[in-house]
Design goal:
single chain; alpha/beta; Aspartate Aminotransferase, domain 2; Aspartate Aminotransferase, domain 1; 15% strand; binds pyridoxal-5'-phosphate
């Protein structure tokens, strides 16, 4: 089956009782144990609603299986803590989601885990790998500058060094990119973003091999970050339209990226689908679409960033991403507000930098809103 067909059909548990087409919501937290193959319990990650979503995501990511979590960070922290422990070392790309970055700096040391932040180049990863390295952790496209990491090269490096590899595939979604097919062991998602897609649920997923699921699940049952049946059902419902949503977001984002890159008030546009983007060649090789996220930098000599964002009508300044509505955020005053201005400058995050999460609206309405706010 192809992606859109998998979105609609994979994993559905047909309702034998009513012959309804949708997976019912199984609310039980208590299941009978006599004459069954496995004990079922929400925190064991094996309830029917969890399984239905995992089966759909397994089809989409082409993995043997997976686990659903109550947030993206529950998924990410469980993966890392089930692989690395006291005395182990983790190599992480430094341009990653702020929460993951903070998780490493705030928690690893207390648990005896060493880590090195590197550039997103394979040479950078190779230099950082040590004898006690257990995991290479990457994210592409990255937040907020949409840097592109060569997934296949990173996976091959990890294999050659006998360490595991993990990727945060939140920005790309399985519609645009399948890292497991390129050799990455573990794929994580913040399902709060595109998988949920309607800015109304919080969840996460880990997709991987049978062997690694067993290992991660045994820790996950102790950490306890499983997902409830009602949210599983909302996620399953959302995933049916993931393909058409993301395809529309890809198209809209490319149109807006081209529009902004020709605008005189805009200095830089960061979108992996633009030929001028540093990662365009690698992105073209490993992605089927370039995603709905882009960033751009206003020419602060010509236009005031605060005035610009206040003049927008349709496009809302808001946190998070991946929903059907287009939202904008300034990393300098949101995700990266806690770091010094000097550090921000080093990371390429100016006060005029904006990140756009492009929705599924008619693109002409979006460019008109931007044009209105960009005019003096
Ligand atoms: C939001 C996000 C996360 C964290 O997910 P939560 O659901 O907020 O815990 C991780 N990675 C990326 C790329 C994200 O955008």
């Amino acid at each position: 089956m192809d992606k859109n067909t998998q979105c609609v059909h994979s994993g559905t548990i047909s309702d034998r009782v009513t012959r309804g087409l949708n997976t019912p919501i199984f609310t039980s937290s208590s299941f009978e144990y006599m004459d069954v193959l496995e004990n079922v319990y929400p925190r064991y990650f094996n309830t029917p609603n969890q399984k239905a979503v995992v089966d759909k995501l397994s089809a989409l990511e082409n993995t043997a299986g997976g686990l659903l979590f109550s947030s993206g960070m529950a998924a990410i922290s469980t993966v890392i803590f089930s692989i690395a422990g006291n005395g182990d070392h983790v190599v992480m790309q430094k341009d990653i989601y702020g929460g993951t970055h903070h998780f490493a700096t705030a928690e690893f040391e207390r648990f005896g885990i060493e880590f090195t932040f590197t550039s997103n180049s394979v040479e950078g990863f190779e230099k950082a790998i040590k004898n006690n390295t257990r995991l290479l952790y990457i994210e592409t496209p990255s937040n907020p500058l949409l840097l592109i990491t060569d997934i296949e090269a990173a996976a091959q490096l990890a294999k050659s060094k006998n360490i595991l590899s993990a990727i945060d595939n939140t920005f790309a979604t399985p519609i645009n990119q399948n890292p497991h097919d390129l050799g990455i062991d573990i794929v994580v998602h913040s399902g709060t973003k595109y998988l949920g897609g309607h800015s109304d649920i919080c969840c996460g997923a880990v997709m991987t091999t049978h062997e690694l699921i067993e290992r991660i699940q045994s820790s996950a049952m102790n950490f306890g970050g499983s997902l409830n049946a009602t949210t599983c059902q909302l996620l399953e419902r959302s995933l049916k339209t993931l393909g058409i949503r993301v395809e529309k977001q890809n198209q809209n984002a490319l149109t807006i990226a081209r529009f902004l890159s020709q605008h005189k008030q805009v200095n830089n546009v960061y979108y992996p689908g633009l030929e001028t983007h540093l990662g365009f060649d690698i992105a073209s090789k490993q992605m089927r679409g370039f995603g709905g996220m882009l960033a751009f930098e206003l020419d602060e000599d010509r236009i005031d960033p605060d005035r610009f964002v206040r003049k927008l009508g349709l496009i809302t300044p808001a946190l998070s991403l991946g929903g059907v509505e287009t939202i904008i955020c300034a990393p300098a005053v949101t995700s990266h507000a806690k770091i010094s201005a000097a550090e921000r400058q080093e990371l390429g995050i100016s006060d005029g930098l904006f990140r756009l999460s492009v929705g599924i609206e008619d693109v002409d309405d979006l460019t008109a809103d931007l044009e209105g706010a960009l005019s003096n």
